[in-house]
Amino acid sequence: MRPLKTLLIGGLLAFLLLAAAGSGGATPPSQPASPFTVFLPLLAMEQPRIRLAALYYDSETSGEADEAFRLWNVGGAALDLAGYGVGDGQRVVTFPSLTLAPGAGLWCTGNAVVFARSFGFSPDCEYGVDSDPQTPNLNGPALRFGNNGGQVVLFNRAGGLADVLVYEGGAAAQPGWQGPAVDPYAPSNTFPAEGQILYRKFDWRTGQPLADSDRRADWAQDPTDLYNGQRVQYPGWDLDRFARPTTISASGVLTAALGPDNLYAVVSQSLAGAQQSIRLASFTFEHVALAELLASQARRGVAVSILLEGAPAGGISDQQRYVSQLIEAAGGQVWFMVNDRNDAKDRYSNQHAKYIIVDERLLLVSSENFNPDSMPDDDKGDGTLGRRGAALVTDNPALIAHARDLFDADLDPLHHADLFRWRAEDPRYGAPPAGFIPSTASGGSGYQLVHPLPLRVAGPFAAEFVQSPETSLLPPEEGGLLGMVGRAGPGDRVLVQQLYERVSWGGAAATPETAPNPRLLAYIAAARRGATVRIMLDSFFDPGANSQTVAWLNLLAQAEQLDLAARLANPAGRGLHNKMVLVQAGGRGWTHVGSLNGSEASAKINRELALQVQSDAVTDYLATSFWQDWLLAGGSR
Fold first, then answer.
1. Tell me, which fold does domain 49-235 have in CATH?
2. 40, 11 Cβ separation under 8 angstroms
3. Is the pTM of this model over 0.85?
4. Among residues 90, 198, 193, 71, which one has the least CA distance to residue 144?
5. Do the domains spanning 49-235 and 465-632 agree at the CATH topology level?
6. What is the CATH number of domain 465-632?
7. What is the tens place of the pLDDT at every residue in 508-547?
8. Between the CA atoms of 230, 235, 241 and 242, what dihedral angle is there, to the nearest 10 degrees?
């Protein structure tokens, strides 16, 4: 029987080989190959394959010397690129002997020095000029990728087409390409087309490019794909490093804090315990008492590093100038992510993440900026006033290490030009006016605390980071916020307490039908599966957009008879600033707390950070405050 089985397998493989050859236009041999001459080569047929993986064609740099393309080896073996070529439709450059490892990519640019300044790392090759002796040079004239469109063609050693990208106004009839060209994703001025990097969709788990169809659908700017498409990338991002789901089985002490009830106490105690280092990131920082605590730690020799947004809404206040001066005078460092210094564009639309790393032994992730309205330090015996927010604190080493790596990648002035350290003489980021007296007012009365004390629990828990611009919109099956909400089904519960949720994304003319908010879609889908869904949005800061969202959700719930309701609220007197989602599914509680708001910019072009944990105790603790706020807003359970 063995010879017959071998013969049948060999014959089948021969047929498949001939069919594959025929589909590619090759002429089959006149005589069928024997089973053995076909079978043995098939075992060794895996060959390296290469694709165009990214294109940076409309640079923001004067002269656009940092234009670049990226290749990716999708094969299973190392590939010597010698003889391969890349063309722009008029000119072609060819590779010398240069090895590309399997499952790896390389960047090649018109000027290695300028590229490194824009991207934060050196390229693997350059063409046209020899700006860096350490960077290999390609052969041929400098490529020029048209800002209004064109094509990029990858040639194999024999001069045949290996891959093609057609973008914007390029020739749609280009051989090797099908259908519409790839356009930058620019639904509004918030997403500039200039400076965008076109890049391939990739597998979220492996980082490898998805299967190639020679169409626009292969690329992350795909306007028809709500989850893997409609994305952008700009120079300086660390997608290769951070665009992976980060779910871990954690253990240790987990603390939940509520603002304004006990958030100041948790933050100040965390900072006071530092012995070696404090890393703090925030959108703004105006809290004098916390600044004095940081200054005291800096004078003790603790390394204090602060990273703030350089262009917050309304500009940098004199109060924040004072706080920065206080920390710097004590030996700490205050940095701003900027776009008006060092001839640089900031990497993210906003540095909006709010977190602290203490001694690499404690991580605090918050919805709140380090300001007195969010973290009042008054005596709360008679109540207080402030903003509703929350924070999670963990001592788990793996979670701390991830946050530390993220902070150090963002605050890296050696490789990124969009960072500016506080200087007293600087008119924008420097000292406050002479004689400025800071405000130390904090809190008040009128709001009665729900939780005077934080919750601390110890033991194992599951945890996941959600961060923008890398993983805030993971497809639901990959995890993240959408995956967490996707757990909820019949009899389960989803509670959303959010500064805002936009009823639609996209441009000014967008509607929920033409440009849906995927976060709202997830909440609605949970209700359609039979979950109870309650959505609470801020009324204090709201110019009307939240009112529109609440009305739209309630009309939808009524029309479809869903157990879904939405309300506006201001439970603690100075705004609902929280960014919190609680899910109770299958008898287990999940909590999402962090800096992400419900806008497209927050999900796709800001630096944001949130932490999701599976802890019944934490979910119950924060759900208690949610329901009290909901009842105060006129809702019912």
1. Immunoglobulin-like (2.60.40)
2. no
3. yes
4. 90
5. no
6. 3.30.870.10
7. 899 999 999 999 999 999 999 999 999 999 999 999 999 9
8. -50
